[in-house]
Amino acid sequence: MASFSVHVANPIDNICFEQVLRSAACSVGILVDRGFGSFEQLSRSQKTVNVAVIFIGGKDDREALAYASRVTQHPAVKLTVIRFLVDTSAESSRLVGYRIILPDQEKEMQLDDECFAQFYEKHVIGGRIAYMEKHLASAAETFTILKSFEGQYSLVIVGREAGVNSILTKGMNDWQQCPELGPIGDVLSGPDFSMTVSVLIIQQHRLKGDIDGLDEDFSIMSYNRF
């Protein structure tokens, strides 16, 4: 039987999060809660909740995608999968230089495509889950898209190291306030970004990093940042 634990931490106690992320015996989720509420409350109110999952690439994004498929089992959830893709038509020296792909990155990209294709065939084709693509050329364009989420979604699910080797997040680390949330998670949970969108940041179990999909054990930490 899968274990499910909730950890509530002081928002300024980053050391606590770092320790959990390094030593957790399962996949970990950090919930930045901005009044998302409980599924029990949703069931009573019959309210539809708009949830988005962002997919750029990497182990954590694949884990987030697997978890999102579980979230859709709740009747009140309306899920949209948003895949961020590099706009290869954008001609800039910075982007062209970043197109050099190392063997490890190529393998990860192949795993991403296989994982997403399976998810798409199983959940999107049947109309159960909405899907959209965003073709972007820089981290600045990624930030603009993320900013547009305000008022559209109650919860956004992201991988902790979402697109860590991608031009779409390059440079975001330079202004990170909470590195344990990852580049996309940190932006979405920032104090100047939104006061209504809750964020679930997921890190795949590092000791089983070669296994795609959600681990049987999954832990969520609630992070009341404000």
Keywords:
226 residues; alpha/beta; Rossmann fold; 7 helices; 8 strands; 32% helix; globular; disordered N terminus
Protein topology:
Layout: E1 4-8, H1 14-23, E2 27-32, H2 39-45, E3 49-55, H3 59-71, E4 77-86, H4 93-97, H5 103-124, E5 130-136, H6 139-147, E6 155-159, H7 182-188, E7 198-203, E8 218-222
Parallel strand pairs: 1-8, 2-8, 3-4, 3-6, 4-5, 6-7
Antiparallel strand pairs: 2-7
Helix pairs in contact: 3-5
Can you say what the CATH homologous superfamily is? Answer: HUPs
Write the element-wise H/E pattern from the N-terminal end onward: EHEHEHEHHEHEHEE
Number of domains: 1
Task: Provide the gyration radius in Å.
Answer: 17 Å
The CATH C-level name is: Alpha Beta
Structural class: alpha/beta
Output the CATH topology.
Rossmann fold
Q: β content, as a range? A: 15-25%
Could you list the spans in which at least 5 consecutive residues all have pLDDT below 50? Answer: 1-13, 208-216
Determine the number of helices (DSSP H or I, runs of at least 4 residues).
Answer: 7
Percentage of residues assigned to helices: 25-40%
Q: Could you say which overall geometry the principal axes of the C-alpha atoms support?
A: globular
Task: Give a count of the beta strands, DSSP E runs of length 2 or more.
Answer: 8
Placed side by side, the strands forming the largest sheet appear as 1-8-2-7-6-3-4-5
Q: Can you summarize the main beta sheet?
A: 8 strands, mixed
- From the coordinates shown, what is the CATH architecture? 3-Layer(aba) Sandwich
User: Could you tell me the mean pLDDT?
Assistant: 75
Head-to-tail CA distance between termini: 34 Å
